[in-house]
Each structure stands twice: as C-alpha cells, then as structure tokens.
Amino acid sequence: MIRAALAIAIASGFVGLVAAAPARAGPCSGALGLSSESIYRGISQSEGRPSAFGDLHCALGQDWMVGLGANAIRAPSGRSDTQLTAYLDRRWRLDEDWSAKLGLIHYEPMRAGNRAGFQYDELNAALGWRGRWLLAFAWSPRVGNAYIGDPAGYNGWMRIETTWRQPLGAGFSMDLGLGHAHPSGTPPHDYRYANLALNAAIGDVYLSINRIWTGPLRFRYEALDPPFEFTFPARQRWVGSVAWVF
Asked: What burial letters (b/e) apply to 159-175, b meaning 16+ CB within 10 Å?
C-alpha cells in the first residue's frame, strides 16, 4: 500500500486506488495522481471539482514509516487550496496473516483562511488480515466546522471504518468499505459512509472507479434561540482516479 495512513480513509475517491499498489523494494516510494473529486470519509474536499494528489513516504528501518502528502481542496466558501498531510506510522507484523499499526497525522492547508475544517491532528490505529481485511479507528480531538469558520464549531471526531479487498485476477480487485463518524458534540451529528471500488493495475499505473455513498449530514445549533437545525440529504457519487506509482 502506498501510504499506510490512507488505510483509514476508505471512502476517499483515491484510497482504493492507492491501496491497490504493491510495496516498493526501496526505502522510499510515492504516487502522483488525479481524481475526478476528492471525497474523504464521505465528505467532498473539492466541492465536486477534480483534485490532484501526491504522496512520498520512506521506511525507517523495519517498523517505522514517515511521509508527506498533498491534495488539491476547495473550501465551502469557494477558496481553492492545497492541503498538506504529514504522518508517522509504527507498524507491527503479528504473524504471517495479521498486522497492525499506530499512526499520527497532521493536516495543514496552505492558506490560513481555510484552517477551519482542514487543519487538525489525528491519532489512528488499524488491524489488518492478509492485506485484504482492515479495521481502523481514528480520533481527532479538535476539528473546525468549515461551514462556520474559525473559531466556532470545534469538535472531536471518532471514526470507525472497515474495508474488504477481493482480488479478481489479472491486476483487478474490488474494495467494499463502511465507515461511521461520531462527533464529541453538536452542531454536527453522527453520519455513515460507504465505498464500492473497482481497481486495475497496469504496470506502475493504477486506475480506480468508485461508487461512494454518504448518509444524511445533520447540524443542530443549540446556542441559537430558537435552536436552528438543517440536514444535507444522503448522496451517491461516482469518482474516478488514476495514479502513477514510483
């Protein structure tokens, strides 16, 4: 898998694509690619627009990995930006079939005006079986609300995700992923998301077609008098991605 930290982002338009790639023999490797839309954990990061992405990571001995990623984003306000991602993973090989990891990630937009919703830290853990089944947990203690702006609307977020990969032969595979997101408080509420992907490997080029479902997104603002509530309806979207792995 190209980036270990991406394993916990099963509903992104390019996660299945990146996860399909084999590990490289050298200490460093990465990927460059383009997605028709950047959808991360069921939420669009590019407001329906194409998004370029890249990743470079290096193994530090047998057990550690450090990396830096970048992807094009677009805030709900309409501001375009690039979000940088720095991550550090500690990995364990439990036996021939099972593996695990703990990771730290920092997300940082390049424009200060986009920090609400795009600047935060995350602690994650994952358990995997034979590179096919994955169970992952992610905790972010303080995430801003991109629809309100800084400093209002901060919450912690816990996300639980699982994904299954089914090899189909001849370089093809399918992914099925499910996720649940739980905030520490309002205005946002719990929501669910899912991803079904068909992946293809052609040499060092990886293609992915995803069908992504996001449940209703409900917000309730208790501080207002009277309280104000609105809901974004459930959505289903097609997302295509291509990446070159090096």
From this structure: bebbbebeeeeeeebeb
Backbone angles phi, psi at 23, to 5 degrees: -70, 145
Measured between alpha carbons, how far is residue 32 from residues 38, 55, 160, 241 in Å?
14, 7, 27, 11
Residue 16 DSSP class: H
Q: Which domains does the chain have, with CATH numbers?
A: 4-245 (2.40.160.40)
In DSSP notation, 202-233 reads: ETTEEEEEEEEEE--EEEEETTSSS-EEEEEP
User: Residue 161 and residue 71: Cα distance in Å, rounded?
Assistant: 22
Measured over the CA atoms of residue 114, residue 116, residue 117 and residue 121, the dihedral's sign is: positive
CB 2 within 8 A of CB 217: no
Give the count of beta carbons closer than 10 Å to the beta carbon of residue 153: 20
| pLDDT, tens digit, 9 for 90 and up, residues 162-198 | 999 999 999 999 999 999 999 987 778 899 999 999 9
Phi, psi values for residue 8, rounded to 5°: -90, 5
Instruction: Report DSSP state, residue 113.
Output: G
Dump pLDDT digits (tens) for 32-46.
999 999 999 999 999
pTM of the predicted structure, to 2 decimals? 0.86
Check pLDDT > 80 for residue 10.
no
Residue 17 per-residue DSSP state: H
Q: How far apart are the first and last CA of the chain?
A: 12
